[in-house]
Amino acid sequence: MPPRLNIVVPVKRVIDYAIKPRVNAAKNIVETNGVKFSLNPFCEIAVEEAVRLRESNKDLVESITLVSAGSAKAQDALRSGLAMGADKAALIECPGIDDSKLLSLEPLAVAKLLKAYVDKSGANLVIMGKQAIDDDANQTGQMLAGLLNWSQATNASKVDVAEDGTVSVTREVDGGSETLAAKLPMVITTDLRLNVPRYTKLQDIMKAKKKKTDKLSPADLGVDITPRLETVSLADPPKRVGGAKVDSVDSLISKLKEVGAI
């Protein structure tokens, strides 16, 4: 029998994937007023995988804990994950972090907060989305594994836990797939093909309100979250222009020269 899994799943509140982000008038932040937010899709996949591991073997998983860092509004994302089947949650509330302000948490700061929380929780497995759809950094999982000095497997499309406690992770690579195996403790980041998250029922949403959510601060964890980067400006991507047909290779070359492509 493998060691029981104490799973931590970091989650993030982001602008809903169906919403087209817009840069504000000052060109320094993405507009958030009146915008719908939801649980990051990759984080949702991570929560689903943790719950499925328990459903496949009730004796395998001891607990599933969600953790999020940010403003008090991040509780919405935690409640979504609790409704999917997680046991409890923790919010690392960061002063000054808000959707309407320029101050934001950088991947290294998040990794340090998670490292401190994982050490405190006694977890032996972290399952998290490979990236958040707001900044697409794809850095926090790798940084966390490095800080913890744990094994890591990124972009997981399949996860298996063997009887001896070995965790096998299949991931897609150029030209096929590869399978990595490592002993616990371990950090896994999830890809889109790992699973399809369940639809949460109303009764599950109501039950989630009764589940425990702890509140911490960066100071409680001894972590400095002072930003190291400054956003100078933001701009919408240039609008795509229509194509044009040419009737010969010579015309094509002439057009390419006109636009400076060759």
TrEMBL record:
Primary subcellular site in the record, as a coarse category: mitochondrion
InterPro entries for this protein: ET-Flavoprotein_bsu_CS (IPR000049), ETF_a/b_N (IPR014730), ETF_b (IPR012255), ETF_beta_N (IPR033948), Rossmann-like_a/b/a_fold (IPR014729)
Presence of keyword Iron-sulfur: no
Pfam families in alphabetical order: ETF (PF01012)
Alphabetical keyword list: Electron transport, Mitochondrion, Transport
Compartment(s) where it occurs, according to its Swiss-Prot or TrEMBL record: Mitochondrion matrix
Domain Electron transfer flavoprotein alpha/beta-subunit N-terminal, first and last residues per copy: 27-225
Coiled coil location: none
Cofactor: FAD; AMP
Record note on cofactor: Binds 1 FAD per dimer. Binds 1 AMP per subunit.
Gene3D superfamilies in the record: HUPs
Family designation: Belongs to the ETF beta-subunit/FixA family.
Entry function: The electron transfer flavoprotein serves as a specific electron acceptor for several dehydrogenases, including five acyl-CoA dehydrogenases, glutaryl-CoA and sarcosine dehydrogenase. It transfers the electrons to the main mitochondrial respiratory chain via ETF-ubiquinone oxidoreductase (ETF dehydrogenase).
Subunit structure and binding partners: Heterodimer of an alpha and a beta subunit.
Record's protein name: Probable electron transfer flavoprotein subunit beta
